[in-house]
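ingest -> validate -> predict -> emit
validate: passed (alphabet ok, no gaps, 255 aa)
predict: started
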Amino acid sequence: MLVTTERRGDGVALVRLANGKVNALSIELLRQLESAVAALGDDPPGAVVVTGSERMFAAGANIEEFGGPEEAEAVGSAFTRALDALAALPLATIAAINGFALGGGCELALACDFRVAADNARFGQPEILLGIIPGGGGTQRLARLVGPSRAKDMILSGRQVKADEAFRIGLADRVVEAERVFDEALGWAAELAAGAVVAQGMAKRAIDHGGDVSLHVGLELEHELFVEVFRTDDARIGVDSFKAEGPGKAKFTGR
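emit:
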């Protein structure tokens, strides 16, 4: 298996990539990732951590699968299906990044909600150095995250960004020592998994979809979800707990 999923007792699902030294994102790996994400959608955990090896998150697509337009269609479609499914999960997702997150590896990290990077991590979209452009969401998700100008700088030059710069521009959310990346991501995910995960999913949907529509439409969506969330058990538990004991004491059920 190139992609494995471990469901932990704290409500976190750990998705790990294992495809050789560089964790090449081959079409087969992306198919397995798509299947793993579908299973998580059918039986959602509280949060998800996506990671590679201790030395390599993912160095990008399998260049051996590149050729002409027909091969590009197959590779691009595999990326789109897998990463769109990951981004659409109605729960928090965290990429735990050691080593390189380049090309498709950077795009995989961008499809997650948060990124915890090792202090030796490097990000990049080097496709331009092959005479091509990103095909797994890099031109879109990177620009939305760090802004069009910074995205163009990275994509048009193909340069790599070190962890400190990634944190400064908002590409990485947390930077820690390499040996702490895994524990940091899992700890953060466990905190989220212990929270009101249904409400988290609704908030994520409002933020993600709101960025693609006008402010008026986004506010309408927020209003609809605000009303809908009050139908959940967690909303009743949270409100009742606040009234009785104050903030931060509720024990949510995820329903």
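Strands lie at 3-7, 12-17, 47-51, 92-97, 100-102, 114-118, 122-124, 160-162, 174-176.
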